[in-house]
Amino acid sequence: MNSPFMALLRRDLLLAFRNPGDLATPVIFFIVTVTLFSFAAGGDLEMLSTIGPGVVWSAALLSAMLSLDGIFRDDYEDGTLEQMLLAPSALTVLVFAKLLAHWLSTGLPLIAVSPVLGILMNLDSDVILILVVTIALSTPVFSLVGAFGAALVVTQRKAGILLSLLTLPLCIPVLIFSVLAVAATASQQPVGGHLSLLCAFLVFSLTVAPFAVAGSLRLMAGD
Amino acid sequence: MFLWFHRLGSARYFFDFARRLTPWLGSLAAVTVITGLYLGLFVAPPDYQQGDGYRIMFVHVPSAWMSMFIYVFMAVNAAVGLIWRIKIAHLLSTAAAIVGASFTFITLATGSIWGKPMWGAWWAWDARLTSELILLFLYLGFIALQSAIQDRSKAQQAGAILLLAGVVNIPIIHYSVLWWHTLHQTASITKFGMPSIHSSMLAPLLFMWVGFMFFFFYLLMLRSRALILEYERSSRWVQEAGAVK
Amino acid sequence: MLEAQNITGSRSEQLLFRDLNFQALPREIIYVRGPNGAGKTTLLRMLCGLVRPDSGTIFWDGVPIADCESEYHRALAYIGHDNGIKGDMTALENLQFFHRIYCAHSRPSPTQALERLDTSNLAHIPCRYLSAGQKRRVAMARLLILNARLWLLDEPFSGLDESARHIVSDLVAEHLGSDGLCIATSHQPLDYEQFGAKEINLGMAS
Asked: Is the reported ipTM for this assembly greater than 0.90?
């Protein structure tokens, strides 16, 4: 329990819970965006159930990205990041701990509210189930890819838009297969293939991203 | 050979090398592009389905090839720059970015114009055009990232890392989009793979492609010379060169 | 032993120092001096391995630091300009975090370290509410728990009051006395008669 990994995980979760405002922002943003869409669509239930999965999906992606902006910057600005770079344990392990903490504090709440938003979007229960599964499989990928972008812009004070420009294109495959899986369920087709591809993306980014993030952090923060 | 590369890695030597190369590349580009345009617009016969409308292909297809080639070119330079710490390699990918983005934009614009008679719409979420659009985002992300970071060497290295991540992702994105398109929108017209093409159409296409290639390297040399002068403005050789002229 | 061979450093393409050579031996303190902007912080960060020198190599016990990173980081304590302290955590929590992340199982516990810097009363206050000097004291307490042989201190006295300065200079003396090395940028010289002292002057080169 005293490993560096656990120490950082615990610290980041502690910090997240001491700032309940920051913790709640992505979720509220998620809910507000989806609600906005249903207003924009004129409350037409038929249409909502067609575009619903895509709307919930894009909103989830955007809220995940917005929450990632500051994941390393706070540590960069108060000097704890450079102390982590100088820690004897591997930087990738520390990066992994930070990402896990981030996913637990922002990804999980997004997953938790997504069924409610599915109901608001007039989706069938089996579609909602697959929607939740795809969001659960993809939010870690967003955290990993987004952290890579966040590491590259760690020295930039206001980089929310830049971060989105850097990372959203990289998230498109995940978006595509998630929406395909949901669409397949809606038309009673098998979804196994799409879900396994999502798992493949998750495994791929789990293997590659921590190294890319660590490398970028070392470069950008080691000024 | 290695020695040559090593010398080419120095900014001053590369500057002279680029200066000597520029007029050659420029004239070769002009000759091949004009030949290609002549062959494409006057010699090649009209298409039996699309009439003369297909001739936009002689700009569209080579631009699409260039847009991908340049991204890979930048990524290779990024890798060389990161691994062997060669500054010129970083400089080349910086110099190439805006050219690549322009070719991507030309591809999108011509594709959209071509799509209007073919699909009856300016934009039909065709798989290749969609991939091309995402490629444009990747170029813009690279340019935005480099211009956001003040410290130049950091900006170059951050850009290089982003390029490597992008080049790994391009095939994944491309095939995802392709699959998304075939599963989702079977209605629109697409030709997968190059349809068999007559040599009278192939020749101008190849001429245009080679011409664009020369043109790209011509622009690359111009841009990298400008960047070298900017980066090395405080060094003695640049100031002396400025005093002489 | 820390040795720098022909290291050259620059910031934003501006040359700060060129071909710097020096050795730091146990029981020795090195002062890095120079006007503002001369590259003192850059040199220190370079010695940590945070910044790569433009040219030249830094050796730790004869091995380039890039080749023994984890070992070198274990032997190193760096106090930078930024204190590296989280405002939302208490002083004690901050130190405990470093204690774990550096896998330090050294004699003084975080509580004892805070006591040594005369900050026990601050242990349970979120660091956000501390003054600049108090935060600096908490940062200095990290030196005790890390159990490092090499201390790199960037302006260790900035913001510290008289009594804290005494505590810190005593800490440095103890550290040097137990065969430690120290490199510090400081405007206030510390005079330890019993230990060797060197100076590196930056800002003259270019």
From this structure: no
